[in-house]
Design a protein that fits this description.
The structure is a single chain. The model is unreliable at 1-7 (pLDDT under 50). The strands form two sheets. Strands 1-2-3-5-7-8-9-10-11-12-13-14 form a twelve-stranded parallel sheet. The relative contact order is 0.05. The chain has 13 helices and 14 strands. α6 links the parallel β2 and β3 (108-112). By secondary structure, the chain is an alpha/beta fold.
Length: 343
């Protein structure tokens, strides 16, 4: 098959740079078709810049087999051109390795709802140029912790972990990842508060996303340090029992925050909650979760409903002064175009 056979000979007058500009808007299926037009197009369609934008997903979940089989064939035939790979619902670590080994140039590895072996901590070092590591909701097949030295990945900017992969043995390696600005470790327990403070200070000028389990790892000083992160857009603290009004009030200094989650607290007073939630800097929030916060009151929610014009999601899950009250019945009318979670 040639270009002239398809009436495409006119494209020969266009420079390669222009053709590549056109190709960058094509879905992967069309790009693969372009490879079969002629040798020249095959070369252009295999330009690495075009392939860097694709995330190839392979899933072992029933009902997704047709798409996954097509993507598996792409992995087999174009492994060196795959830069972003997402594997999900795979419960055989040998199968995971057999797929990964076909992709030698990965910059993003996502293993979601997968089961990993202890060997993964060394195996992942095959890709030193990784920018993204996502192990959300995955499990380790043995009782041994997976100890990854994250400073091996000097380009890393996104790290999301399940309840393993970060411990006193390797946590300090995060301090030596200069571009790491998205940190999601909300299932990692028992980190020292000193380490968390040092981590926040090391990323204070660049941190964009920070999700952490909290508990004894987070205190008011930590929250004050986070409030000084000028680029912070997404903050989540799942267990914030140790935080008090002193830390909460510092949130008024966040200037670029878009997503905020605080769960589990009985210390925050209604007065300081009201003052904080009334801050102009927080009124631009797109999502807000104040679940299991004892002193969230109807007055505070009224402020949110009146002034938070960008809000698309609100969770006041199990807030005792809201649920099972007459006020709860009014919430749907107050937030007609917003997803509100109460239970």
């Amino acid at each position: 098959m040639t270009a002239s056979d398809n009436g495409l000979e006119g494209f020969g007058v266009f420079p390669d740079e222009l053709l590549l500009e056109v190709f960058q808007f094509l879905p992967i299926e069309t790009l693969l078709t372009c490879e079969n037009v002629c040798k020249h197009w095959r070369k252009l369609a295999r330009d690495t810049a075009l392939w860097r934008r694709f995330v190839i997903v392979y899933s072992g979940k029933p009902g997704q087999s047709e798409v996954s089989e097509k993507n598996l064939e792409i992995i087999r035939s174009h492994g060196k051109l795959i830069f972003r790979l997402k594997l999900q619902y795979l419960y055989s670590y040998q199968e995971i390795e057999s797929i990964l080994e076909k992709c030698s140039n990965l910059i993003s590895i996502e293993l979601v709802m997968c089961r990993l072996g202890k060997e993964f901590e060394e195996y992942i070092n095959r890709w030193p140029n990784l920018k993204k590591i996502n192990l959300k909701n995955s499990l380790v097949l043995t009782n041994d912790d997976v100890v990854i030295n994250y400073d091996h990945f000097q380009q890393l900017n996104f790290l999301a972990l399940s309840d393993f992969g970060l411990s006193p043995v390797n946590c300090n390696t995060l301090l030596h990842c200069p571009y790491l600005n998205h940190i999601l470790i909300e299932k990692i327990k028992n980190l020292s508060s000193d380490f968390v403070k040092e981590l926040i200070m090391s990323k204070q000028e660049t941190l964009i996303t920070f999700h952490i389990y909290g508990g004894d790892s987070i205190d008011d000083n930590s929250l004050q340090l986070l409030s000084q992160c000028s680029m912070l857009k997404d903050l989540a603290i799942i267990r914030c029992e140790n935080l008090t009004d002193k830390g909460l009030i510092s949130l008024v200094n966040l200037r670029n925050i878009e997503h905020l989650q605080f769960w589990n607290n009985t210390n925050f007073s209604e007065l300081v909650l009201l003052h904080t939630m009334s801050s102009p800097n927080l009124k631009t929030l797109e999502s807000l979760s104040l679940s299991r916060i004892r002193n969230i009151s109807p007055t505070i929610v009224d402020v949110i409903s009146e002034y938070y014009k960008n809000l698309k999601f609100l969770a006041v899950y199990q807030c005792p002064r809201i649920i099972n009250t007459d006020y709860e019945k009014q919430l749907k009318s107050k937030f007609r175009n917003i997803d509100v979670v109460l239970y």
